[in-house]
């Protein structure tokens, strides 16, 4: 971020005050897949849509600046962003990744292990000396989610950067849960940031998108080459939708956080809740209820919370990780790090906080009355 304005202002103004695009306030969508050339060798910006597009440019420049990076690459999904990052590495590379990790990332890493002879060591996010001992001759990067998903654990990104710099390996951060509104990993020494922009950045449960942010000439150039060569780029319409969503990011994040903090206070005193996991910022939290048998009736009793598999949208969601987002992580692995069958993950929306708590309250009442809860 530049010092010229605050991030709230920067977000709202994305795409505005440009001399190009007829000074349109809202960024126009350029659907054209091709751009005419005046003559051979005259390069005036665009030629083919996969390589570059004016709508995508506005988005990518804004995201790069927000994350304090130099370049951003908008992709067709968050997973395509992760795939783009790992396209940097050669067969036989080793990586260290967060133990508590988004199930889709874990599933892709398993594919990489089988197909590209990559190997992964998982770190529980606690002991930084232990992390350093995991580094081998062929280790190429440390891939961190902070906060983790679904146990909402944060790590010290600066400490990890010291280690990655000492060993000349890359520090990659999935910043989906905190967003650049809260955390800018590149300022803390990370090299690459990835996002599922489907979540908070877009914010309305109506868009699938990803983004990779980088700095440093070599990595920037490599990504530009791979983004174009692989081709999982974001469509102009989706770039427009993402820009529109991001204009309200600051406003939404403040309300998500305010509501999540209220929900945390409520859950911490509830007799049917045994544990609450909240990283301190943002709108994501997880909690364990006292008995696995209560999970299903509880989910059925909800009237405002939507039982669905995503996060970061304006609507409040509840997810049951072991059958949804994290079902591809084997049971023994999940249990070994505390992802239990009683854990529910909430993406607290921006509805009125009292209505959100009232919904949880009536669902707890309903399961108590059903006689399911004998506590
Ligand atoms: C959802 C998610 C992804 C994958 O993104 P998609 O947009 O669904 O492809 C990656 N990382 C995290 C932390 C996520 O929550």
Instruction: Assess the beta-strand content as a share of residues.
Output: 15-25%
CA distance, first residue to last residue: 51 Å
Q: Tell me the name of the CATH homologous superfamily of the largest domain.
A: Type I PLP-dependent aspartate aminotransferase-like (Major domain)
Rg estimate, integer Å: 22 Å
Strand count: 12
Indicate the CATH topology of the largest domain: Aspartate Aminotransferase, domain 2
What is the overall shape? globular
Order of strands, main sheet, comes to: 1-7-6-5-4-2-3
Average pLDDT rating: 95
CATH class label of the largest domain: Alpha Beta
H and E string: HHEHEHEHEHEHEEHHHEEHEEHEH
Largest sheet: 7 strands, mixed
Helix content: 25-40%
Heteromolecules bound: pyridoxal-5'-phosphate
Number of domains: 2
Give the class from helix and strand content and strand pairing: alpha/beta
- Looking at the overall shape, the CATH architecture of the largest domain is 3-Layer(aba) Sandwich
**Uncertain parts:** none
SS element count, helices: 13
Can you give a write-up of this model?
The chain has two domains: 7-246, Aspartate Aminotransferase, domain 2 (3-Layer(aba) Sandwich), CATH 3.40.640.10; 249-369, Aspartate Aminotransferase, domain 1 (Alpha-Beta Complex), CATH 3.90.1150. It has 375 residues and is of the alpha/beta class. The chain is 37% helix and 15% strand. The protein has a seven-stranded mixed β-sheet with strand order 1-7-6-5-4-2-3, with helices on both faces. The protein has a five-stranded mixed β-sheet with strand order 8-9-12-11-10, with helices on one face. Helix 6 links the parallel strand 4 (139-145) and strand 5 (170-174). Pyridoxal-5'-phosphate is lined by residues 77-79, 102, 104-105, 145, 149, 174, 176, 196, 198-199, 208, 210.
């Amino acid at each position: 971020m530049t010092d010229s304005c605050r991030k709230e202002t920067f977000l709202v103004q994305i795409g505005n005050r440009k001399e190009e695009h007829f000074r349109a306030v809202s960024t126009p969508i350029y659907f054209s897949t091709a751009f005419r050339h005046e003559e051979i060798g005259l390069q005036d910006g665009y030629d083919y849509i996969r390589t570059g597009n004016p709508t995508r440019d506005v988005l990518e420049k804004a995201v790069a600046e927000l994350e304090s990076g130099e370049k951003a690459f908008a992709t067709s999904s968050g997973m395509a962003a992760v795939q783009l990052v790992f396209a940097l590495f050669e067969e036989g590379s080793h990586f260290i990744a967060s133990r508590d990790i988004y199930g889709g990332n874990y599933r892709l890493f398993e594919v990489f292990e089988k197909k590209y002879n990559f190997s992964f060591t998982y770190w529980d996010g606690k002991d930084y000396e232990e992390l350093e001992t995991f580094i081998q001759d062929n280790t190429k990067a440390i891939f961190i989610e902070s906060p983790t998903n679904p146990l909402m654990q944060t790590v010290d990104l600066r400490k990890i950067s010291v280690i990655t710099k000492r060993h000349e390996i890359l520090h990659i951060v999935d910043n989906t849960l905190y967003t650049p509104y809260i955390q800018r990993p590149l300022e803390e020494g990370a090299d690459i940031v990835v996002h599922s922009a489907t979540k908070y950045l877009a914010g309305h449960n109506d868009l699938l998108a990803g983004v990779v942010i980088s700095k440093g000439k070599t990595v920037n150039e490599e990504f530009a080459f791979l983004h174009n060569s692989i081709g999982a780029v974001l469509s102009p319409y989706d770039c427009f939708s993402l820009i529109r969503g991001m204009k309200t990011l600051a406003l939404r994040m403040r309300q998500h956080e305010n509501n999540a903090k209220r929900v945390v206070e409520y859950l911490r005193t509830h007799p049917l809740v045994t544990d609450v996991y909240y990283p301190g910022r943002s709108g994501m939290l997880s909690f364990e209820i006292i008995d696995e048998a209560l999970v299903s009736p509880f989910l059925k009793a909800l009237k405002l919370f939507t039982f669905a598999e995503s996060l970061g949208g304006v609507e409040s969601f509840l997810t049951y990780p072991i059958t949804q987002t994290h079902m591809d992580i084997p049971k023994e692995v999940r249990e070994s790090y505390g992802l239990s069958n009683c854990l529910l993950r909430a993406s607290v929306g921006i509805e009125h906080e009292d209505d959100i708590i009232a919904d949880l309250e009536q669902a707890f009442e309903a399961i108590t009355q059903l006689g399911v809860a004998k506590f």
